UniProtKB/TrEMBL annotation:
InterPro entries: HAD-like_sf, HAD-SF_hydro_IA, HAD_sf, Pyr-5-nucltdase, SSM1_domain. NCBIfam families: HAD-SF-IA-v3, Pyr-5-nucltdase. It comes from Uliginosibacterium paludis. This is Pyrimidine 5'-nucleotidase. Pfam families: Hydrolase. Gene3D superfamilies: 1.10.150.450, HAD superfamily/HAD-like. It comes from the Bacteria.
Amino acid sequence: MKPVWLFDLDNTLHDAGRHIFPHINNAMTAYMAERLSLSIEDAHALRGHYWTRYGATLHGMVRHHKVRPGDFLEATHRFTDLASMLVFDKALLRHLRKLPGRKYIFSNAPRSYVDAILRLSGLDRVMDGSFAVEDLRYQPKPAVVGYQCVLRHLRVRASDCIMVEDTAKNLLPAKRLGMRTVWITPGSQPRPVWVDAQLRSARALKAPPASASGRR
């Protein structure tokens, strides 16, 4: 069987670190400072703590401060000119088209942002669909609920899936469920035991061997 590819979006298929992430991080810090009556410095530290502990600032804000997920995401993902901030290698489109199997985005970002990035990059013409945080019942990676939502919606087994991510800890639940895992990282960090392949770029992805794609 051909595999089902699950791609993270930011820093996996485009470079969000250059312009987009700094903008979102500043917006989150400003939101937290105002909402929680914190200094910018304390809000920044708390945001980092929540991201480290939960994998997403959203999870910490909802769990500890009863923030409405939609309100938080809408306030922190506003862009006046997202197109000018996008750093994307168009050659990746041709490479992804050559990979066998179905391809989906699996992102912690809100729907409006995911759709905008897909449209601006041209990835909407390559992907078979996408999952934003709203589709995960606001349970972002690495919460296992989100992975289970994706599998149920696609009606596939985890063993049929290949998950491609830039955040290594988000690959751990995928591996535990039975997916094959690919870590996209430009550095030379040691490869965790739950990572099957470590690549510098998504352009280095290859079709799995026939025996692997059909393994149960």
